Amino acid sequence: MASSFTPGLRVARGTVVTKERRLPLLGDVTVQVGQQVAHNQVVARTELPGDIYPVQVAHALGVEPGELKDAMLKREKDPVRKGETIAMARSFFGFFKSTCESPIDGTVESISLRTGQVILQRPPVPVEVNAFMDGQVVAVHEREGVTICTQGAYIQGIFGVGGEAWGKLEPATRGPREKLEAAHILPAHKGLILVGGSGVTLEALFKARDLGVSGIIAGGFDKGDLKELLGFELGVAITGNEEIGITLILTEGYGEIPMIQRTWDLLDSLKGRHASVNGATQIRAGVIRPEIVVPLPDQDLEVESRHTGALEIGSEVRIIRQPWFGQKGRVSALPPELTVLESGTLVRVLEVETEAGERVVLPRANIELIEK
Fold first, then answer.
1. How sure is the predictor about 372, in pLDDT bands with cuts at 50, 70 and 90?
2. CATH code for 316-369?
3. What is residue 308's predicted lDDT score, i.e. its pLDDT?
4. 300 falls in which pLDDT band (50, 70, 90)?
5. Distances, alpha carbon 264 to alpha carbons 38, 196, 267, 292, 362, in Å
6. Residue 73 DSSP one-character state
7. May I ask the CATH class of domain 158-289?
8. Across-strand partners of 99?
């Protein structure tokens, strides 16, 4: 019987990274195939329709819906300004009049003589998509977007919050086992991506945000501080849209967990290099990992092939589900038979001996292989 497991997080110094950059609606692509682009360069743009705003004009004027045609001072598709009179009705031989003003800037979308309602629409919202990373346009998707390709270092995290950010990499601790404290954060770090060791304190994160640090990469973060950082309890939905003023990427998990030496060594060797980072994460179906991309176009890199490895006794793994989320260990047993969980689900399991010496039995989907 076939079995599967969650592939490990990638930590590669030399690889090819390809990204699709697509618009939410059809629009215009601003670049061509073969063109070199910068991370902040706009590659496609469009406009989202503005919000709809219904106005009960007939009721405001005190007229019947059918009388709205003669009362309207604006016609469909006419522009309007907030506070501008869009309809007027006169009574008692013209001695008295009632008016209705537009509550928004926008246009008249429709006028209903049946309901007496006028639909206004706010101005369209411009949307621009940038390249995210320095690279080359390798494909253009007509009116939708482009595919960007670059060569360089690529690192995946296990969890992150905050969206896309950019900046030069700067190790802020002395090694992978040192925690990033507020004292490590300096005004000179504005606009940089800081690399911490075993974790980052909430105080340090807030200080970094206030000083304009673009992002922080660290081994772990206290789960209890996550709600205070976000201002709400994080659910199971995808992260990455939080407006917290900084991007946080964890390479190991919750708590104070030393960053894997290989990850630290790679990030440390890239000090001063420009990085593109994204904290977007989805651990459940349709896995999305936070990522760090460091283009290295000026070096003749030996591109690493993707190695998924084989899950076997002794394989180093990381647990990606509670209550052992983020803990590392080694596979100590791979039972071939299916096991019934408390939920009644029949799945393949494995036994992991954690670094603390505890042996736990888990569904294979609850771990990921740590690639070497």
1. low
2. 2.30.30
3. 46
4. very low
5. 26, 9, 5, 13, 28
6. S
7. alpha beta
8. 88
Quick one: pLDDT band at residue 306, thresholds 50, 70, 90?
very low
Q: Nearest 5 degrees, angle CA 9-CA 139-CA 47?
A: 95
Pair 315, 330: CB distance under 8 Å:
yes
Span(s) in the chain for CATH 2.30.30: 316-369
Q: What is the pLDDT of residue 303?
A: 47
The SS3 of residue 144 is: coil
The DSSP bridge pattern shows strands 215-221 and 291-295 to be unpaired
Cis peptide before 79 (omega within 30 of 0): no
Residue with tokens 């799945």: 347
Enter the pTM of the model. 0.75
Measure the N-to-C terminal CA separation of the chain; round to a whole number of Å.
27
Strand segments (E) across 172-242: 179-180, 193-195, 199-200, 215-221
203-258 pLDDT tens trace? 999 999 999 999 999 999 998 898 899 888 876 668 888 899 999 999 988 889 89
Task: Look at the alpha carbons of 229, 230, 236, 241 in this order and tell me if their dihedral is positive or negative.
Answer: negative
What does DSSP assign to residue 142?
T
Closest listed residue to residue 252, CA positions, set 169, 342, 160, 174 = 160
Label residue 285 exposed, middle or buried (CB < 10 Å: 0-12, 13-18, 19+). exposed
d(CA 73, CA 239) in angstroms, rounded, equals: 47
Give the contacts of 345 (CB within 8 A, at least 6 positions apart): none
List, by residue range, all CATH 3.50.30 domains of the chain. 158-289
- Tell me the pLDDT tens digit for each residue of 155-197: 999 999 999 999 999 999 999 999 999 999 999 999 999 999 9
Residue 304 or 328, more confident: 328
Q: Which two tokens stand for residue 188?
A: 């000179």
Place of tokens 């983020």: 326
